[in-house]
Structures are given as structure tokens and as C-alpha cells.
């Protein structure tokens, strides 16, 4: 069955009190509209049509993609008017209506809804609410069949007592849509062209309106203000946490865990509190992540251990390697198996081969560090001359003494040693000791200065 998806995203969102359009506000690091588009794509539709209005240029600019058709709704005259703007582009047998400010809708729910649609039947997603104030009410006849939707502001007292609310999400046979939208009027409490009036028209044309419900009411919750945005965020995070726990991750506290991107996990992973995963993160089996770690676009191979407060961005950590506490691995960092970095070590565009170690207080940028090489505390690569970046290359089994300055470009060959406090500016041949510091001298009979007394 061919499918067109229309996403309504033209509204202003006044209650956000924001310079940016409502649908661009983020949930879990992606705009609300971005989440809806992501779900829409998983249904493999023929077309995705996004109706934009307020902040249209910004929305288009932020989300432009070859598979999206942006349709401008100049004036927001109602949800029915909004869908009508997309009509010329709709060609599929079924049209599904979604909302740019309802980001948590699940693909499985939409599939159940779409399964209801035939040339003689609509699918309507409804939700039972303890307090349905503001929602359109689902009106059913004596036999329990849906006969209409009445908007809250147009509803009678008796209709307002109905707890079944309209989510707005709807799937209809495409052939009929143009005719129904053409018959809409705005003679109602809000002076708008209501998409919901299509329901009564379909029923009077002899179609059946079948309903489905979301598994969780939060799926159909929109965000009108920042408080609701925060509620969606927490709900999303809890859902993501549950998904990871189901796959074999222990979360010390699912309420203190945030995912802002796509995470794949192995089994027996342990994640302590206040960990943030951003972008594309791959975590293999038996990884342990300590508290307060921030991990972006990185891969942690089997058995990696991150200690508290470690910051990763664009790093690949090999099997059994470890970092932290308070380590910072910047883009281009590669640690091979069992490599180790300890507290206050920063790596950038640096490859540490197997079993290489930098235990404390170091900056290693644009470096290649051979297997089993040990970097002493306080060592830095002087990789930047003010104009260009240069590489520092260390062979296998090198021993860099404490507090070295390695002035790149420089090559320290296998098995070489550098003395503590050295400034290394030249190649160190294999196996040799480099001493790059002034020799100590002791001055006999030297007197400390004495304090001058004020009279
Ligand atoms: C709508 C439904 C109501 C349902 C509720 C669920 C109608 C007439 N009513 O009411 O039955 O219970 O959603 O939240 O459909 N939009 C446009 N262009 C417009 C008008 C709206 O793009 O001209 C977009 C808005 O940005 C918003 C969505 O459509 O994302 C819903 O519009 P809104 O005016 O909030 O409808 P409700 O009054 O909430
Ligand atoms: Ca609304």
C-alpha cells in the first residue's frame, strides 16, 4: 500500500517564548520535528510533506533533506487548511497525518494504525484521558462506532464528559481526502478549518472510522511550553534507558542517564550515574562507565573501563583499555588494546598502541605512541609552532621521563629513554638515553637574601 505522510509544523508555539519555531526545540538533542521525520522515514513512505509557516525559512534550512517536501502554509487557518496545502503533492493510496510537536510517537503504533486503512475505512488514533480538557472528543453512536470529532470549544456539556480524546493522528484513504477538505468550513468556535470535521464527512459517505490507541499516552503528548518539553525529554530518556536495560545494560539510575543520539550496546555493560551519551556511540560487552562521563561519537570495545568524569569526543578505545578519572580524549584519539591513560591526561589526534601508558598529567596531541611505551607525568607534546601542527612519533618500549617537552616534529625510536625534565628537540636513536636539560650545579657558600627592615 503506497503512503504519503503529512507533518503539520506551521504553528507558532507562543508559549515557548522563543525566537525559534516550536518544532525546532530539542528533545534528546534532536528537534521535535526531527524525531517525527525520523519515525516517518521508518515507514518507508512515497513522500514526506512538511507543512511549515512560522519560522519557515529556519525550519527548512535546519532540516532540508532530499526526501522531504516542504509546503508553505502562509496563514494558519486550521489543521484542515494545513493539510490542504499539501494536497497537490499527495499521490498515494493512504495519507497519514502527523504533528511536528508530537515527537515521541512510536513507529509500531503508526503501523497498527495504518493496518486499519482500506478504501472504505479510516484509522484514527485516540487516547483515554482523565482530564481531556482542550482535546477534540470522540463521539460514538449507540453501536459504539465513531460518528464525529467535536472540538473542546464547540462541545456540549455532555460531549465534554467524554474521556476519549483525539490525538490528531489520522490515516485516511488518499482518494477521498481532496473532496472532504474541499467541503470544510470555518463556521465554528475558533473560526478555523478543522481537519477533525473530515471524520463526520467520512461517516456520512458510508466509511467506517476504526480506532487504535498508543501503548503509552506520552507517545501522543505535544509540547506547548518548556515544562512540557522537559516532561517529553525525561520520558524519552526513561524509554531509552529501558531499551538499553532490556539489552543487557545495568543503569545505576535510569533517572540520571541521558542519550542524545544513537547508541548500540553489548551485554553486561555497567553505567553509573550522570552519564551522557551523544551522537553515535558504540559500547561493546563488559564495558564499565563510571559516574559523570560524557561520551560523544565514540567506540568502546570489549572490557573498556572509563573512570569518573572522563570526557570522550571522537575516540576509539580498544579492548581492555582504560581512561580516567578526569581524562579527556578528543577527536582522532585511538587507543589500542590495554592502553591506559590516567587522571588529567588529554589526547588529541593521537594513537596509543597496545599497552602504552600515560598515567598522569599529560597533553599528547598529534602523536603516535608505540606499544608498551610509558609517558611520564607532566609530559606534553609541543605540537603547534603557532602556525602549523607537527607530529611526535615514539617507537615501541620507549620510556619518556617525567615533565618532558617533546618539540614536534620529533622522532623517538624504539627502546629509547628520555631523562626527566628534558626538552626533546631532536631525534633520539633506538635504545639511547637522551638528556635534554642543563646539568645541575650546586653553589657552595650561597646566601639567601635577607628581609630589609623598615626603620
Ligand atoms: C488539535 C485537534 C484536536 C486534538 C488536538 C490534539 C483539530 C481541529 N483539533 O487541536 O481534536 O485533540 O489537536 O493535540 O485538528 N497547525 C498548523 N497549521 C494550522 C493549524 C495548526 O500547522 O493552521 C499545526 C500546529 O502547529 C500544531 C498542530 O497543527 O502542531 C495542532 O494544531 P493546534 O491548533 O494546536 O490544534 P489543537 O487545538 O491542539
Ligand atoms: Ca495543540
Automatic annotation (TrEMBL):
Top-level EC class: transferase
Listed GO MF terms: glucosamine-1-phosphate N-acetyltransferase activity; magnesium ion binding; UDP-N-acetylglucosamine diphosphorylase activity
Chain segments annotated as coiled-coil in the UniProt record: none
Keyword Signal applies: no
GO terms (BP aspect): cell morphogenesis; cell wall organization; lipid A biosynthetic process; peptidoglycan biosynthetic process; regulation of cell shape; UDP-N-acetylglucosamine biosynthetic process
One GO CC term, this protein: membrane
Keywords: Acyltransferase, Cell shape, Cell wall biogenesis/degradation, Cytoplasm, Magnesium, Metal-binding, Multifunctional enzyme, Nucleotidyltransferase, Peptidoglycan synthesis, Repeat, Transferase
Annotated metabolic or biological route of this protein: Nucleotide-sugar biosynthesis; UDP-N-acetyl-alpha-D-glucosamine biosynthesis; UDP-N-acetyl-alpha-D-glucosamine from N-acetyl-alpha-D-glucosamine 1-phosphate: step 1/1; Nucleotide-sugar biosynthesis; UDP-N-acetyl-alpha-D-glucosamine biosynthesis; N-acetyl-alpha-D-glucosamine 1-phosphate from alpha-D-glucosamine 6-phosphate (route II): step 2/2; Bacterial outer membrane biogenesis; LPS lipid A biosynthesis
Domain of life where this protein originates: Bacteria
Subcellular location(s) per record: Cytoplasm
Pfam families recorded: GMPPB_C, Hexapep_2, NTP_transf_3
Active-site positions on this chain: 360 (proton acceptor)
Region of interest: N-acetyltransferase: 248-455
Domain MobA-like NTP transferase: residue ranges: 6-121
Region (Pyrophosphorylase): 1-226
Binding-site residues for Mg(2+), renumbered to this chain: 101, 224
Binding site for acetyl-CoA: 377, 383-384, 402, 420, 437
Gene3D superfamilies given in the database record: Hexapeptide repeat proteins, Spore Coat Polysaccharide Biosynthesis Protein SpsA, Chain A
Major location (coarse): cytoplasm
This enzyme's EC code(s): 2.7.7.23, 2.3.1.157
Residue numbers spanned by region Linker: 227-247
Subunit structure: Homotrimer.
Function in brief: Catalyzes the last two sequential reactions in the de novo biosynthetic pathway for UDP-N-acetylglucosamine (UDP-GlcNAc). The C-terminal domain catalyzes the transfer of acetyl group from acetyl coenzyme A to glucosamine-1-phosphate (GlcN-1-P) to produce N-acetylglucosamine-1-phosphate (GlcNAc-1-P), which is converted into UDP-GlcNAc by the transfer of uridine 5-monophosphate (from uridine 5-triphosphate), a reaction catalyzed by the N-terminal domain.
Listed name of the protein: Bifunctional protein GlmU
Species annotation: Pseudomonas eucalypticola
Amino acid at each position: 500500500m503506497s503512503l504519503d505522510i503529512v507533518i503539520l509544523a506551521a504553528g507558532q508555539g507562543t508559549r515557548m517564548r522563543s525566537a525559534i519555531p516550536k518544532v525546532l526545540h530539542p528533545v534528546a538533542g534532536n528537534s521535535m520535528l526531527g524525531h517525527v521525520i525520523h519515525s516517518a522515514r521508518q515507514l518507508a513512505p512515497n513522500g514526506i510533506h512538511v507543512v511549515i509557516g512560522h519560522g519557515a525559512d529556519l525550519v527548512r534550512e535546519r532540516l532540508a533533506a532530499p526526501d522531504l517536501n516542504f509546503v508553505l502554509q502562509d496563514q494558519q487557518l486550521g489543521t484542515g487548511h494545513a493539510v490542504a496545502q499539501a494536497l497537490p503533492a499527495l499521490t498515494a493510496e493512504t495519507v497519514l497525518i502527523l504533528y511536528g510537536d508530537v515527537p515521541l510517537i512510536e513507529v509500531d503504533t503508526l503501523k497498527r494504525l495504518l493496518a486499519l486503512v482500506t478504501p472504505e475505512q479510516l484509522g484514527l488514533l485516540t487516547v483515554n484521558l482523565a482530564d481531556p480538557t482542550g482535546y477534540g472528543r470522540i463521539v460514538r453512536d449507540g453501536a459504539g462506532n465513531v460518528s464525529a470529532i467535536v472540538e473542546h470549544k464547540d462541545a456540549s456539556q455532555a460531549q465534554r464528559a467524554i474521556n476519549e480524546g483525539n490525538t490528531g493522528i489520522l490515516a485516511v484513504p488518499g482518494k477521498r481526502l481532496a473532496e472532504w477538505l474541499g467541503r470544510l468550513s470555518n463556521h465554528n468556535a475558533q473560526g478555523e478549518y478543522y481537519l477533525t470535521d473530515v471524520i463526520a464527512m467520512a461517516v456520512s459517505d458510508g466509511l467506517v472510522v476504526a480506532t487504535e490507541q498508543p501503548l503509552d499516552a506520552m507517545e501522543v503528548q505535544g509540547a506547548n511550553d518548556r515544562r512540557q518539553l522537559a516532561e517529553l525529554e525525561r520520558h524519552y530518556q526513561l524509554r531509552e534507558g529501558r531499551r538499553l536495560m532490556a539489552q543487557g545494560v545495568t543503569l545505576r539510575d535510569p533517572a540520571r542517564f541521558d542519550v542524545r543520539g544513537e547508541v548500540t550496546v553489548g551485554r553486561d555493560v555497567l553505567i553509573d550515574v550522570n552519564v551522557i551519551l551523544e551522537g553515535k556511540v558504540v559500547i561493546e560487552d563488559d564495558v564499565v562507565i563510571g559516574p559523570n562521563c560524557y561520551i560523544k561519537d565514540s567506540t568502546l570495545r570489549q572490557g573498556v573501563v572509563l573512570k569518573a568524569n572522563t570526557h570522550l569526543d571522537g575516540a576509539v578505545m580498544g579492548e581492555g583499555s582504560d581512561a580516567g578519572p578526569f581524562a579527556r580524549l578528543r577527536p582522532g584519539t585511538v587507543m589500542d588494546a590495554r592502553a591506559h591513560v590516567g587522571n588529567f591526561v588529554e589526547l588529541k589526534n593521537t594513537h596509543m598502541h597496545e599497552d602504552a601508558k600515560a598515567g598522569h598529567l599529560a597533553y599528547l596531541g598529534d602523536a603516535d605512541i608505540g606499544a608498551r611505551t610509558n609517558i611520564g607525568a607532566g609530559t606534553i607534546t609541543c605540537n603547534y609552532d603557532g602556525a602549523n601542527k607537527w607530529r611526535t612519533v615514539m617507537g615501541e618500549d620507549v620510556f619518556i621521563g617525567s615533565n618532558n617537552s617533546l618539540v614536534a616534529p620529533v622522532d623517538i625510536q624504539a627502546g629509547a629513554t628520555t631523562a626527566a625534565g628534558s626538552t626533546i628537540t631532536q631525534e633520539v636513536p633506538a635504545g639511547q638515553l637522551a638528556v635534554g636539560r642543563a646539568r645541575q650545579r650546586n653553589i657552595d657558600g650561597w646566601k639567601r637574601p635577607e628581609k630589609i627592615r623598615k626603620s
